[in-house]
Amino acid sequence: MLAYIIRRVAQSVLVLLVVGLVAFSMFRFVGDPVDNMLGQERTQADIERLRVELGLDQPFPVQYGKFLGQAVQGNFGLSYRQGRPVADILLERAPATLELAAVSGLMAMIGGIGLGVFTAIRRRGLGANIVMTSSLVGVSLPTFLIGILLIYVFSVELNWLPSFGRGEVVRLGGWTTGFLTESGLKALILPSITLGLYQMTLIMRLVRTEMLEVLRQDYIRFARARGLRERSVNFRHALKNTMVPVITVTGLQLGSIIAFAIITETVFQWPGVGLLFINAIQFVDIPVMAAYLMLISVMFVAINLIVDLLYFAIDPRLRLDRGTGAKA
Amino acid sequence: MNTAVLSVRDLVVEIPTRNGVLRPVDQVSYDIAPGEILGVVGESGAGKSMTGNAVIGLLDPPARITGGEIHVSGQRIDNLPREALRRLRGRKIGMIFQDPLTSLNPLLTVGEQLTETIREHLDVSESEALNRAVAALDEVGIPAARQRIGSYPFEFSGGMRQRVVIALALCAEPELVIADEPTTALDVSVQAQIVALLKRLCRDRGVAVMLVTHDMGVIAEAADRVAVMYAGRLAEIGPVRDVVSHPTHPYTAGLMASTPLASLGHNRLRQIPGAMPRLEALPDGCAFHPRCAYAEDTCRAEPGPSIETCGGRAACWFPLSHDEQEGAA
After folding, report:
1. Which of A227, A237, A327 sits opposite B157 (nearest CB)?
2. Coil, helix or strand for B307?
3. Min Cα separation B104/chain A (Å)
4. Between residues 202 and 221 of chain A, which touch chain B (CB distance below 8 Å)?
5. Cβ neighbours of A235 in B, within 8 Å
6. Interface contact A223-B148, CB threshold 8 A
7. Domain assignment present for A105
8. Residue B45 DSSP symbol
9. Torsion A280-A281-A287-A291 (CA) sign
10. Domain contains A55
11. Interior CA angle at A319 toward A315 and A324, to 5°?
12. Does any CB of chain B come closer than 8 Å to the CB of residue A327?
């Protein structure tokens, strides 16, 4: 198992290198940042000087090498637009995105698994059919539209919840949190629903399909034939067996919650890294964009690694090096 | 009837479909006494497994019991509410499934599966349940039971897993065990061990066993009496020796003639012409008449009446007398 982990970590590093290369090389061709940074009144000399200052005059591999070397030390350079270290800007923005992603991820997971089990067990029931039909809305409506609809109903018409921003935040060391104030919590509700709804319906439909498959298995029949309670059959025996595929997809979905927060953050003007990224694109702020992409890929890779390790926790058949004889 | 552990009377199971109602089990009656093994044989789709599922209350909807009665130890169980029936399962009626590779939950240890079953039915502590679980594994012949209690099903071989399945079916001390093709998925050498184990447990505990199989060899080896099913009906029931050597129903005779026996050498096997009719297209009268050499107009009009045979019953208009045996089928 240790060898497995080492192999997986090595693979992850390779993935990160490739993502770094792709991100970095793509931005070479996005446009010349120097145009944006200097005003109308610029001379050729100004342009050349800034190019040298930013290291843009050097060959591509050298620039990439430098970028990587700095990146592993947490140094992504200076933002072209704000002139401050990118790492500082990202750290400042990260809590907003992570809190939003955590709330919507939790909502998606609890709601998705709960409703998935419910619709699988009562698959002919009225309630399950209503849930299944309305889940189509979550799957098919685009995120920004759901966000705008929610704003219209709860902010504009009912005036219950704020339509933008994070509300008041409390500073705890380097972290800012919206969990501790009423306005902060209120501000979280609409964006988390917007961000988590799609993932929730996806997880729900997956859990339902997997549950229906598992409930047909012989060991479920045998569990019933031994007179176990329905609750035990459904949750102890069936749900656990659906977990491997569900965790795979849920893990990937949590990654994409952070990545797709861009849209939700734009709709709700949520001061997180997604909004930062959108603004960075407008200004061809390459260091910010590159750092953001690296951050997202690190998260994806980390989640994938955790998912792979969770398989071992769930399925004893994968823990083959326990040293017990397979044949009696 | 009152001394029987299982008593089935005129059981009817029906499946409503778009094209009418199917009857996979039709007017089936039999008893099983304590310590007795009743073999139930027949072709695939004859209603053997469906009968077993009906008794333990695990028919897959839309299949349901629409007629007859089932009594276990004198208590009528076919009309019990779901929750009451659940409590009987495992406690009064145990069930053994065909495929030991898929009958055990792969993610729980055998100890967890045993203790949860024991604690569901018997009011014992966790440690007492564990002791009983070890004893149950020991009883079915798992070596070093106490060490294996924490093993997962995949760590056992097929034959050992079927022993675990049997231990699970018996761990809450049921009075009746329904064994649905318990040896079909096993190697021949392991089959004999499992049959011997079932026989021993049945004798030691006085459990009544309903042994569903299509293997006449297993029946001859293990069963006290045998019930032959054809197209949902009971063709013949009686002591194994009588049914095997003097079948009364032409179908039974055909079945016996088509069973390979090592002692008979390498003669070409006989076969019954045709195939069992599908449930959607059952012929009128006796369902076997299109394949029966003795069929006459009466057979085409009415199902065979129940007649007494030596030690049992058969449903036939023209039962074979013993000197006709050689020409049967």
Report:
1. A327
2. strand
3. 5
4. 217-219, 221
5. none
6. no
7. yes
8. T
9. positive
10. no
11. 120
12. yes
Establish if A143 touches chain B: CB-CB under 8 angstroms: no
| Contact state of B58 with A225 under an 8 Å Cβ cutoff | yes
Q: pLDDT of B83-92, one tens digit each?
A: 888 888 988 8
pLDDT surpasses 50 at A38? yes
B327, part of any domain: yes
Among chain B, residues having any CB pair with chain A shorter than 8 Å are: 56, 58, 86-91, 94-95, 97, 99, 102-109, 116-117, 120-121, 142-143, 148, 151-152, 154-157, 160, 165, 168-169, 172
Which two structure tokens, joined as six digits, stand for A236? 């102890």
pLDDT digits (tens, 9 = 90+) for A299-326: 888 888 888 888 878 888 777 654 444 4
3-state secondary structure of A49: helix
The answer to whether A314 faces chain B, any CB pair under 8 Å, is yes
Q: Return the CA Rg of chain B.
A: 21
- Let me know if residue B262 belongs to a domain: yes
The CATH number for A113's domain is: 1.10.3720.10
pLDDT at A164 over 80: no
Q: At what angle do helices A286-314 and A60-72 cross, to 10 degrees?
A: 60
User: Domain range spanning residue A108?
Assistant: 94-283
Nearest CA in chain B to A325: B155
Whether residue A204 lies inside any domain: the answer is yes
Number of domains in chain B: 1
Q: Long-range CB contacts (< 8 A, 24+ apart) of B236-239? A: B236/B309, B236/B312, B236/B313, B236/B314, B236/B315, B236/B316, B237/B30, B237/B312, B237/B313, B237/B314, B238/B309, B238/B310, B238/B311, B238/B312, B238/B313, B238/B314, B239/B311, B239/B312
Place of tokens 């929750």: B83
The whole domain housing B262 covers 250-329
pLDDT band at A19 (very low <50, low <70, confident <90, very high): confident
Q: Is A241 on the interface with B (CB under 8 A)?
A: yes
Tell me if A317 and B116 make a contact (CB, 8 A cut-off): no
Are the Cβ atoms of B97 and A225 closer than 8 angstroms?
A: yes
Cβ-based contacts of A316 with chain B (< 8 Å): 106-107, 109, 152, 154
Domain count, chain A: 1
Residue A43 lies in a domain: no
Q: Which two tokens stand for residue A158?
A: 């009912």
What amino acid is encoded at A99 in this protein?
E
Question: Which stretches within chain A are classed as H helix?
Answer: 2-28, 33-37, 44-54, 60-72, 86-121, 126-140, 143-150, 182-215, 218-225, 230-231, 240-259, 261-267, 273-282, 286-314
Q: How confident is the model at residue B134 (pLDDT cuts 50, 70, 90)?
A: very high
The secondary element (H helix, E strand) that includes residue B12 is strand B6-17
